Amino acid sequence: MADVILELKNASIFQRENLVLSEVNLRVEKGEFVYLIGKTGSGKSSFMKTLYGDLPLKQGEGSIVELDLRTLKEKEIPGLRRKLGIVFQDFKLLPDRTVNDNLLFVLKATGWKDKDAMQARAEEVLEKVDMKTKGFKFPHQLSGGEQQRVAIARALLNDPELILADEPTGNLDPQTSVEVMKVLQEINKTGRTILMATHDYALLLKYPSKTLKCDGSKVFEVVQRSV
Ligand SMILES: Nc1ncnc2c1ncn2[C@@H]1O[C@H](COP(=O)(O)OP(=O)(O)OP(=O)(O)O)[C@@H](O)[C@H]1O
């Protein structure tokens, strides 16, 4: 049987008392690349937040990287985040330190101790996103696409089972978006599972893959038409 990385059954997602999504049923298996699309306000970010423990799952069932979202306790959230790689639209790099130190900071915060191993790991992930020569730079010295590649490198540090990317190309021009997408595709080819929320239909057409749509407070799989 294929490894199930993420499964929701009859899940409802709320922002405070407001129902955002209901009867969500889905299953993502190891190695899949899945898009999550939908209009502004349709619930994509709320959905992603539920998956990384920022919004509690109060109704239905959900499991992600072998953790139960319904019974997830506050103190289990760091453990969940360690098994996930999360990439945001606005990169969220720490502006006051270099790329290298941004990566070392995360390694330290996630329990790494050996300095040489930490440096080697930082270089390894930078290499994967083709940023190995830029470790000494500060985030503001990088282009948006480069910052996002560093953010992807950061997401890879702890070898996550699942990468959640919420509008990772939302702040990038079309050409840079394609470059970032190529990086995500390469990562997916090495067997990592990726769930990516996006508005970018051009990317969907260029890199077709399983697509889920949030609409009318439901999430359903859509069949992509080739153009
Ligand atoms: N912190 C919050 N408190 C209350 N309601 C919220 C909160 N965040 C979002 N919402 C509401 O939840 C609904 C879904 O919003 P969400 O941000 O998940 O949509 P989205 O599809 O990600 O939109 P976008 O593409 O603009 O990011 C919206 O009606 C929004 O107003």
Strand-helix topology:
Elements: E1 4-15, E2 18-29, E3 33-37, H1 44-51, E4 59-64, E5 67-68, H2 77-83, E6 84-87, H3 99-109, H4 115-128, H5 144-156, E7 162-166, H6 174-189, E8 193-197, H7 201-206, E9 210-215, E10 218-222
Parallel strand pairs: 3-8, 3-9, 6-7, 7-8
Antiparallel strand pairs: 1-2, 1-4, 4-5, 9-10
Helix pairs in contact: 3-4, 4-5, 5-6
The structure holds adenosine-5'-triphosphate.
Domain ABC transporter: 6-227
Organism: Sungkyunkwania multivorans
GO molecular function: ATP binding
Fold and architecture overview:
InterPro entries: AAA+_ATPase, ABC_transporter-like_ATP-bd, ABC_transporter-like_CS, ABC_transpr_LolD-like, P-loop_NTPase. This is Cell division ATP-binding protein FtsE. Residues 6-227 form the ABC transporter domain. Pfam families: ABC_tran. The longest helix has 16 residues, at 174-189. The chain has helices at residues 44-51, 77-83, 99-109, 115-128, 144-156, 174-189, 201-206, and strands at residues 4-15, 18-29, 33-37, 59-64, 67-68, 84-87, 162-166, 193-197, 210-215, 218-222. The protein has one domain: Rossmann fold (3-Layer(aba) Sandwich). The chain is globular. With 227 residues, the protein is of the alpha/beta class. The strands form two sheets. The protein has a six-stranded mixed β-sheet with strand order 6-7-8-3-9-10, sandwiched between helices. Residues 15-16, 18, 20, 38, 40-46, 214 line the site of adenosine-5'-triphosphate.
